[in-house]
Amino acid sequence: MTHKDWFVKKLAKSLNVSESLIDKIIRHQFDGFVTASRTKDSLEISGMGKFVFRRPGAQRKLDRMDAQIREFRNKISNSDSEVKIQTWNDVIDTMLIKRQMLINRMNHEFDADLRGVEKPSGSREGIEGAD
Description:
The chain is mainly alpha-helical. It contains 4 helices and 2 strands, in the order H-H-E-E-H-H. It is about 65% helix and about 5% strand. The chain has a two-stranded antiparallel sheet. It is elongated, with a radius of gyration of 21 Å.
């Protein structure tokens, strides 16, 4: 059972409403978060706080990642160990993916990784309270 499934069941039981309604509401909220994060640099969620994307910090992180990638490439060129070379190549691949995600976010081309949360449904029709 995913965290989302557990949360839906718990909330539906405590509010005495159907799990499908709670699921639709959660999907609607996440859809709104994703939409807002694509065009805005901050997102405020009542009761949870304000989340801010800071461009200068992101640029510094990008610079650090570039320096680390260069260091790993230097290590690869000076190493004789195939195991170390493979490990460092795997680290570089992971860093390149994270680097591209950060660049996309800086350019407002962000695709949220909801880590196990199902994608929001395409339609909000039939959801009470939906915009």
